[in-house]
């Protein structure tokens, strides 16, 4: 009989749709899949409705899991069909700029895992498939670590070469940086290791002059020209090919990990363009870093590899577990700090971080760090450029200047956040935002013109920080180490005593003071432009400059006044008492903590970054102090401030809500507003529902028994209603505008000549989250935060009163904090 092949075909098609790849969104560039008409199948099913019910039970259990088992036997009679017997494209997906339903994603993953576990007992092949599914997470982590580490190494090498290209070129091999070029030279000496005949400045190459005013002006001009060229290429590529490649990326990553959908933000084009433009903007000399954008790059890698496995591509909740681990890998390669990367992901960016994600984050960070170490981009057999070795312990009396540096970091963080947010808001609300290319060119020109005369701002920020962190040894040639030596000194090289500062040190301190003012001002205007821009390195540079100045001051104070009571016990004449590089390291941690409000992960990153395990206590003291001082002026870090500036629906787990308001004060509709738009369980037609969808922009509709009783039945998502009606018109005969839509198990009684009713019970959420109208908002906020809800319904004795969405919660919190509630633009 014809029905047997048909049933097998239906089962195969059901399995194909439930396990296959999700179709593209209707508004994407791909054409939507149109399913063939199934009218002949419906006629055969009417003749064999007993077989039809059995098939519905099997398919219902397989496709929709335990939450939908009760919907498996839905066909009330043989002449009616629930067209959702076969899944249709895009069911269970989300629209752009909307929040995912964490509870539904968790339930779907539980159902998927239960089905795989049950099927693994059927055969050896199914058991092998279950093992492959279990190991797919580790495979994704391995791939993320390998690609993120490789990209970070390539970026580091390219930045090193292109930064030096602004000043000169290597004649023996143009792709060598200045340092690499002189490494290969036999004429270079240790004292003048940065000078070799193979490396020539542009003035030497073009006019055969290395000294004099004309050579200086030519090098100055070409430095500015190269910087403008790099910046123009970067902003043009971002503007034309990948607008989402601009900025740091961490505010958006935090928002995406909290459940928000921003399609294309982690796409392949964004990955490619951000990698290329990151090299260009860092090489241009702008006051920005590559560390924050590397987190975005790593998350793009995570999104790409998760799309290759249906376990992650079909479940937005599981995808975010991968992205959390990818963020850890990004910090791991940015700073060479795998443990700090895991803690950064946990403390700063992740919203949902189960123990399993912790292990996988650690593995991804390990693989990424190992890959970067294999590439060895810095040529020092270490993961980082800032590795230091101090030979002097710190003393208790030094905690006072360390805490002062923490206060400075907190004040700098507050100043930067307020000024940068004010400037970014002005950019968004004035004509300035219409000319992003001109803004980038102008800031680059100003930066290059002011930076070149000062040797501490001319070099790359990473090299500046490295020099500020370094201790002055006997072989150092830096101006910062121009001390007056005692000719009778016979101490070992690693134990040089404190010495009086020479003219070079005082000159360096003036140049550093000017560099500090310049970095503070220019970073405010640079962060937030339409180019990739990280904030970690500029913040650390500000703190390192301030710390080095303070360190030299304390060192000279201890040398000249060693008989003071604070120095008497630990700083004897001829002793190595104070390490200025340590103050630079502490200042860098303080300023970075003041801007980002990081604490634990910051300290771990800093000691992994520098190898200064012995100096954890000074780092902790500075980090905690900077956070306390900055929190006294405002609780938001720079990333949270940019999230609120962009209006993203981010419900921070660190926010506290202490106001005594109730759910009835926040729910919609309020007094004087139109009644809540609802669906009835069995009395609305297809035309009524389509009209309601066209006239409103709500994400979903409560389903009630009737508009008179308003007894709650469930909740139907807007997107799934649209898809269900659209597919029903294509696949089911007799569905017209006058067809009654019903959400009950049994069909309603309709006149004999009426069109067939349409059954949509399977898209109905029969257990929506509800609260009573007298539930405290403190509890409601906690529920939204911990369960990741999109909305909850407000009832009284089972009767629907209203609805509270995530946007309503955020706007209420903003209103209670005396902020503009209309700044929350998305749900």
TrEMBL record:
It comes from the Eukaryota. This is Chloride channel protein. InterPro entries: CBS_dom, CBS_dom_sf, Cl-channel_core, Cl_channel-4, ClC. Keywords: Antiport, ATP-binding, CBS domain, Chloride, Endosome, Ion transport, Membrane, Nucleotide-binding, Repeat, Transmembrane, Transmembrane helix, Transport. The gene is CLCN4. It is a multi-pass membrane protein. Residues 17-36 are annotated as: Disordered. SUPFAM superfamilies: CBS-domain pair, Clc chloride channel. Pfam families: CBS (PF00571), Voltage_CLC (PF00654). The chain crosses the membrane at residues 135-155, 220-245, 266-286, 322-346, 399-423, 435-452, 508-528, 535-554, 582-607. Residues 667-731, 764-822 form the CBS domain. GO terms for cellular component: early endosome; endoplasmic reticulum membrane; endosome membrane; Golgi apparatus; lysosomal membrane; plasma membrane; recycling endosome; synaptic vesicle. It is found in: Endosome membrane; Membrane. GO terms for molecular function: antiporter activity; ATP binding; voltage-gated chloride channel activity. The keyword Hydrolase does not apply. Belongs to the chloride channel (TC 2.A.49) family.
């Amino acid at each position: 009989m014809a029905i047997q092949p048909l049933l097998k075909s239906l089962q195969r098609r059901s399995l194909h749709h439930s396990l296959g790849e999700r179709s593209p969104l209707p508004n994407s560039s791909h054409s939507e899949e149109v399913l063939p008409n199934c009218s002949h199948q419906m006629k055969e099913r009417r003749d064999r409705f007993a077989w039809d019910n059995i098939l519905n039970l099997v398919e219902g259990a397989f496709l929709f899991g335990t939450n939908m088992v009760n919907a498996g036997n839905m066909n009330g009679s043989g002449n009616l069909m629930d067209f959702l017997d076969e899944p249709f494209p895009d069911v269970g997906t989300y629209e752009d700029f909307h929040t995912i339903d964490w509870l539904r994603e968790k339930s779907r993953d539980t159902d998927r895992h239960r089905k795989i576990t049950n099927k693994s007992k059927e055969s050896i092949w199914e058991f092998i498939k279950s093992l492959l599914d279990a190991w797919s997470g580790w495979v994704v982590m391995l791939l993320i670590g390998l690609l993120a580490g490789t990209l970070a190494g390539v970026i580091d090498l390219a930045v090193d070469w292109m930064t030096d290209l602004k000043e000169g070129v290597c004649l023996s091999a143009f792709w060598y940086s200045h340092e690499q070029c002189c490494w290969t030279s036999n004429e270079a000496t240790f004292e003048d290791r940065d000078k070799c005949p193979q490396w020539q400045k542009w003035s030497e190459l073009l006019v055969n002059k290395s000294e004099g005013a004309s050579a200086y002006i030519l090098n100055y001009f070409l430095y500015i020209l190269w910087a403008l060229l790099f910046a123009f290429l970067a902003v043009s590529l971002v503007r034309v090919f990948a607008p989402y490649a601009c900025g740091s990326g961490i505010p958006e990553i935090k928002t995406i990990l909290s459940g928000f959908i921003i399609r294309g933000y982690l796409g392949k084009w964004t990955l490619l363009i951000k990698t290329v433009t990151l090299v260009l903007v860092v090489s241009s000399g702008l006051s920005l870093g590559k560390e924050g954008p590397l987190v975005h790059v790593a998350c793009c890698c995570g999104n790409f590899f998760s799309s290759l496995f249906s376990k992650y591509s079909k479940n937005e909740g599981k995808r975010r577990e991968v992205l959390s681990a990818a963020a850890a890998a990004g910090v791991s390669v940015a700073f060479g700090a795998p443990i700090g990367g895991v803690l950064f992901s946990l403390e700063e960016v992740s919203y949902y971080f189960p123990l399993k994600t912790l292990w996988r984050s650690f593995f991804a960070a390990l693989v990424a760090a190992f890959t970067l170490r294999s590439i060895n981009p810095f040529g020092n057999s270490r993961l980082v450029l800032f590795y230091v070795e101090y030979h002097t312990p710190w003393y208790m009396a030094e905690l006072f200047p360390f805490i002062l540096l923490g206060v400075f970091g907190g004040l700098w963080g507050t100043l930067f956040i307020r000024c940068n947010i004010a400037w970014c808001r002005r950019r968004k609300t004035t004509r300035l935002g219409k000319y992003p290319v001109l803004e980038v060119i102008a800031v680059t020109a100003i930066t290059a013109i002011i930076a070149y005369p000062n040797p501490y701002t001319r070099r790359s920020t990473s090299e500046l920080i490295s020099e500020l962190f370094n201790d002055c040894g006997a072989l150092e040639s830096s101006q910062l180490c121009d001390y007056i030596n005692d000719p009778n000194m016979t101490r070992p090289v690693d134990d040089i005593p404190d010495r009086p500062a020479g003219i070079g040190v005082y000159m360096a301190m003036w140049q550093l003071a000017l560099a500090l003012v310049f970095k503070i001002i220019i970073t405010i205007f640079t962060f937030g432009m339409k180019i990739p821009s990280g904030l970690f390195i500029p913040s650390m540079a500000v703190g390192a400059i301030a710390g080095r100045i303070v360190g030299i001051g304390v060192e000279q104070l201890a040398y000249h006044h060693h008989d003071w009571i604070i120095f008497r016990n630990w700083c004897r004449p001829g002793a190595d008492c104070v390490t200025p590089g340590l103050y630079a390291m502490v200042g860098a941690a303080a300023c970075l903590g003041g801007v980002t409000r990081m604490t634990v992960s910051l300290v771990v990153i800093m000691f992994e970054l520098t190898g200064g395990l012995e100096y954890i206590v000074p780092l902790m003291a500075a980090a905690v102090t900077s956070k306390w001082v900055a929190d006294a002026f405002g609780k938001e870090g720079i990333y949270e401030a940019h999230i609120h500036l962009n209006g993203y629906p981010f419900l921070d787990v660190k926010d506290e809500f202490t106001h005594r308001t109730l759910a009835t004060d926040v729910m919609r509709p309020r007094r004087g507003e139109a009644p809540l738009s609802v669906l009835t369980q069995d009395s609305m037609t297809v035309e009524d529902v389509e009209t309601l969808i066209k006239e409103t922009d709500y994400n979903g509709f409560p389903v009630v028994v009737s508009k008179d009783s308003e007894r709650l039945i469930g909740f139907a998502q807007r997107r799934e209603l649209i898809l269900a009606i659209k597919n029903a018109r294509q696949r089911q005969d007799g569905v017209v505008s006058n067809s009654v839509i019903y959400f009950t198990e049994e069909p309603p009684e309709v006149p004999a000549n009426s069109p067939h009713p349409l059954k949509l019970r399977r898209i109905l959420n029969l257990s929506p989250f509800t609260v009573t109208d007298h539930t405290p908002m403190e509890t409601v906020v906690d529920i939204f935060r911990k369960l990741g809800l999109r909305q909850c319904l407000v009832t009284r004795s089972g009767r629907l009163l209203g609805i509270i969405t995530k946007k309503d919660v955020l706007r209420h919190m903003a209103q209670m904090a005396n902020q503009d509630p209309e700044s929350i633009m998305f749900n």
